[in-house]
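Input:
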Amino acid sequence: MIDLRLDEEQQLIRETVHSFAMEKIRPVAHEADESGAIPGTLVAQAWELGLVQGSVPEQYGGYGQGSSAITGTVIAEAMAEGDLAVAMHVLSPRLVIDPVLSLGSEAQKKDILPRYCGERFVAGAAAVCEPRWDFSPAKMQTTARRDGSSWVLEGKKCLVPLADDAPFIVVYARDAQDKMIGAFLVPAGTPGLQIGEREKNLGLRALATFEITLEDCRVPADARLGDDATPLLRRARVAQSAMAVGVAKASLDYAVGYAKEREAFGVKIAQKQAIAFMLADMAIEIDAMRLLNWEAAWNLDQGNDSVREIALARQYVADGVMQVTDHGIQVLGGHGFIRDHPVELFARNGRGFAAFEGLASV
Amino acid sequence: MDFSLSEAAKKRKETMRFVAEYVMRPISRQYDEAEHENPMEFFNTMWEASRGNREATKISGDGKKGGEASENTLLACIQIEELAWGDAGLYLSIPNPGLGGAAINAAGTPEQRDRFLKTFYDGKPRWGAMAITEPHFGSDSKQVSMTARRDGDEWVLNGTKIFCTSGHRALEMSDGFVVVWATLDRTKGRPAIKSFVVSAGTPGVKVTKLEHKMGIRASDTAEITFEDARLPADSILGTPEIVTKGTAGFKGVMATFDATRPIVAASGIGVAQAALDVVKQTLKDSGIEIRYEAPAHEMTVLERAVMWMESQLQAARLLTYRACNMMDRGERNSREASMCKAKAGLAVTRITQKAVELLGPIGYSRKLLLEKWMRDAKITDIYEGTQQINQMIVARSILGYSSAELN
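Output:
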């Protein structure tokens, strides 16, 4: 029976993460964006929330039952409301945990997962995007060739978060033989894995992302997690879309607060229809974005591949977050263009969702 | 969280789709072209079906507080979505208590509900209707200038109402009723506005015009003139007192919209779904499948357009289901009701326009129903509160403003 609400547990998670995002993350978002650095203390505090460890089952060192896509979207949205770069940073371990959990062997789970459930934050990384205008997961050019008992990875990747710090990078590559997309667990320091300079992007400036090059990069046969990694990339889209909803919500809430303070022509600007209707539109679109994405996530949790739902939600959300965050700037007028206010940051971050692949996981 | 339909909802959807496909579609074009004619066979068929299944024809949910979860509002929306998929104009003209019935349910005493609704389905087809709009106002409903004067044991109504859906069928084709908004005192604003149930056959009540419309032509849209129309004292819904403190009475009337807006959204969604289905079938027949995961730079304009239509439609639908959900749980849903109505109104207008565009000359031709659906969809963004009125309600809600602060 249709019931479009979070359950009590999900509601509680949302409230916890949202308070953290607004009280701890948002106050440092501006400085992090300007300096390109996220305070270590903040990352440690986020770690203590236990969101990452909670997605790992007890037998592998965590204290959860595994992850539901719906709960994943709740966490991703609420965290991204604070700041997108910080959210991606603190949730990055899931870029390794989720592939291992869903495709890894029992031995890999026992070996890898406990490393991400310790006292301290351990960075995770995934390499999906490639530095080409016509990149798409369906047209991945990085290849994996079988050579004896090794896989040989070749190609160039970009937008790889925390590649300089992560003990493992999950590299997505096309099997040179059967053309299937595979996920390969590549340990830091593997010969042939070159980590380039830190990237400079339109948004996500606080998130350390890198271009990486794979040249005759050899990993053992069992480094390949399962066979087909396409479902993982779909799940990533659901997580990213949830973060986009969070960014859009952040823009709306800031614009509402501003519009109720700022005066023009003798009234608060929120009392003018031109402003009020923009805010109403933003609110409607945000709820629509969230519901569509929940539907995609719910279908994943039912064991469906959710191809259509995810594609529709992603397209809708990528358009929506741009429109909403642009409205957010417009409500503030000239002040929206000044970096002292976060709405331009929301729009710069929001622009990426049409391009992002594999930057988050549920 | 659950995105799946219950067994009851699936069954309702299936039944209504059958009616839509085999009873409504075959006569859809005919009654679009023959405006103001009456599809009597259709009326009789629907009337007989309604009598056998009154629960299924309820226009709004019960809004149970606590206890067992109800899904009456949701079921109503699913039903209407399917019937409007068949034909939105014919759906609107199905003999039932309509919006007038919703008002009596919301604001009437148990005795009034018994009197007007309990025996409604006895006898021949009947219609209920609601008359608010007057020639000089639409959205600004506190401008009611139709007067109600007490004279002995009667109320005396004078004035003119327009845009009354099914007004003609309620008053002149059947033994139905119209719920009419009138003021007890024009100088006292909202608190003086009351609603009255006017039964067919009331002397001094006359349908003076039937509108010619862009779409939903099978539905009658009446102008009704009241000249010293006399009603029994107990025709008034709610208290006859003019309570100036607070606007509880008026708010009560406005709360009816919380139930009717998702219904209107659902009818538009049905129309847009019909258009989308034809577009997809046409593409399929031409050997074109939508590649949902195609790389962005390889996707065709067609694929992009269809995906846009599908996601817009589903967004409107989910917002509508959410508003229904809340009403079914007895939660206040004014904001969500307006959200779904605003979203659906615009989305279905654009989706049906896009459908006509995509199919080119075929889409524009009256051989297919696409052009009709484009005409039928537009009203979704207008009646039961225009796009702008609903934006206003959403804006007030998220800003925490009263109507005095934002207007």
